Amino acid sequence: MPTISSASQVKPFTPRQAWVMVICASAFYCFQFLLRVAPSVLTEQLKISFDVNSCELGFLGACYYNAYALMQIPIGIVLDRFNIRYIISLSCGTAALGTIIFALSDTLFVAGIGRFLMGMGAACGFIGTLKIASLCIDKRYTVRAVAIAMIFGTCGGTLGSAPLALLTNYLTWRTSLLLIAGIGLCLTVLLYITLKPLEQLRHTSTLRINFATFADQLARLVKIKQFWLLSIFGMLMYVPLSAFADLWGAAFVALKYAIDPVLAASLVSLIYLGVAIGTSIFSTMAEKLRHYQLPMILSSLMITLCYHYIIYSSSLSIELFGGLLLCAGISFGGQCLVFSALSEKVSPSSYGFACGFMNMIIMMSGVVFEPLIGALLDSNSQLDIVTYTTALQPILIALCSAIAISLFIRVKYPRYG
């Protein structure tokens, strides 16, 4: 089976320095997650402000995912070659700038530009954290680094749901987003300061990229069957987050139980709380079992069952439904293992590029499924719970496909001693 060869690298950091940098980079991932899910609690306000239907709103939300997905490979390349400290700080600043433009926009076109810039900047959040971890953290603890990043990210998802919905009861959605942009600018400064130890690394930055080297990396990567299985599994497992939790979930829950949007957003935020818990559970399971595939199979089975009841249940109390959303988030935890498994197939020097390529495939879930579900909602003139149930069925199709893919994943867990 082809693989990209590994190369040893001396890590010129103390463990404390390494984990501080991983945590600070994870805070950026938290910020970008907050930006990503914000439209889920602003759906009605955005429809009114920009006079759009559900499908158009889906495309507006997907502007983030389009930019995010398109930037994954370029970001992966520059993280492998250029000064990581500058790249991550600049990316955070770009996301904050996009938020400002989005908040001040008067037309759908300008809002789309702002949303696109948000996605461009945010594209570095997760893979930037993983790149730092691959350079600074012992390979045995890559799973932990991924878990920390996911926990921070899901905290951002939680903050982007109920608290943002509550904030918009007192401030306009535009003012609320401007406050979030201010947080992003402060985080940009923090990243620039805390990532200074990365200057100790030897960078190979030049004014041009060696496209022959890039083409060689790409050619070797696309020949790795397990890379494609991991990426497609990760993408299919991500559909419930990108399509349900990030955009349509709060509106669905509000309609299903005839409740206030703030309460609906609070319930949906339980998914992100569950992801934080589930990431820890499944990463620990992988460490204890020294196995990637079994936790992935279990995760895909559990999440499929959860979303079956989320979409089709009609007699659950709101308390039990909230517990079901929490379980759905916990079940997602096995998805994060794809990034840890990827580290077994590529060298640290190529990990940024490979991780970016994988994350681009995963983020296609939002590019495709957000507008798809919006179009299915618009296909029926009556926006009732039956229409929503029908429109959300692609989520189950994706999850059932993830179960099938997981059965063919074969990546050995690293063994020491």
Structure description:
There is one protein chain. The chain has 417 residues and is mostly helical. It has a single domain, classed as Growth Hormone, Chain: A (Up-down Bundle). It has 17 helices and no strands. Helix 3 runs antiparallel to helix 15. The longest helix has 33 residues. The radius of gyration is 20 Å and the shape is globular. The N terminus is likely disordered.
- Uncertain segments are 1-10
Oligomer: single chain
Question: How many H/I helices?
Answer: 17
Name of the CATH homologous superfamily: MFS general substrate transporter like domains
The top level CATH class name:
Mainly Alpha
Q: What integer value in Å does the Rg equal?
A: 20 Å
Strand fraction? under 5%
Total count of domains: 1
Work out the helicity level.
over 70%
Q: Look at the structure and give the mean pLDDT.
A: 85
Structural class: mainly alpha
What's the order of the H and E elements? HHHHHHHHHHHHHHHHH
- CATH architecture name: Up-down Bundle
CATH topology: Growth Hormone, Chain: A
Main pleated-sheet profile: none
Strand element count: 0
Distance between the termini: 25 Å
Which word captures the global form? globular
